[in-house]
Amino acid sequence: MDVFFALSGFLICGKLLREQQQTASISLKRFYLGRSFRILPALGLYLVVLAALAAAGWVKAKNWEFASTLLFVRNYFPLFHGQALGTYTAQFWSLAVEEHFYLFWPLMMLLLGPQLRRIALATLVLALVVFVWRTLDAHMGWFIPFGSSVDSKTDTRIDALLWGCLGAIIYPYVQPRVRALPFCRNLWVPIAAILAVVLILKHVPGGSLIQAILFPALIMSTAISPDSALGRILEFRLLKWTGRLSYSIYIWQQLLVLPNDLPNSPFRALQHFPANIAFVFLAGAASYYLVEKPMIEVGRRLGKRSQATVVRGASPARIPS
User: Fold this and answer.
1) Would you say residue 317 has pLDDT above 50?
2) Helix (H) or strand (E) run with residue 21 in it
């Protein structure tokens, strides 16, 4: 999830920065239309299927799971109390973090204006504040009585996205300078090595901060040098295809990979290796090509129509050059 958060922050912020530079503003309507059609249709399909399986008695699911998932507050529900967790919707804690980021980040950019230094400074300060808050929360255990995990709450995890945003902001300045270095192609090696040490040791002082910074740095190194060894590996067709399916796989994997404790459920046959892995990819591919991809295109068309309406309705003096 740290890779996903870093990549999401890097891509979303980069996209908004380009729009801000081209139009001197950010269209919240177009942004939220695009995000809604990107996320909600595939999520809705999964919840409908899960509800049908639960109604048939093939899996366990509780009503509050559906509401908390659709309201994107799944990451503030108890996570370590057995079945109270809600096995087949537990993955949506990270989607809740992502959605909360979508809500505040474009607004924050609009409020700060087009000055990149101001945006970069605000992002840096906020990311460090989140790290300090997470450290205090982990040591003090303020939210333990409520059953919420430090690792899942937006207020203690969103810095993983913010460091990705900071990477996108500084990327245009860093890219030409790093490209000029003689060891540019191998820059990812020390970054990956330090990251591996932090992940393996787990108790490195400030490890969560180092980890949150290194993932965007690793992403930036591959963007700067796509011809590096790591860049070429990531360009493999199978990996690129899996990347396109990643959101759908993320949605469906919980249902098919985790074991079913209902002994008479016919669905159990699909929840054991290797059938579960095959069906995760089948379900992910079906969701992507039949639901996700067409809905993304609908959102894109509506966004373009919204942009065209704004441009036609604007006075000539306000139309960006």
Assistant:
1) no
2) helix 2-23
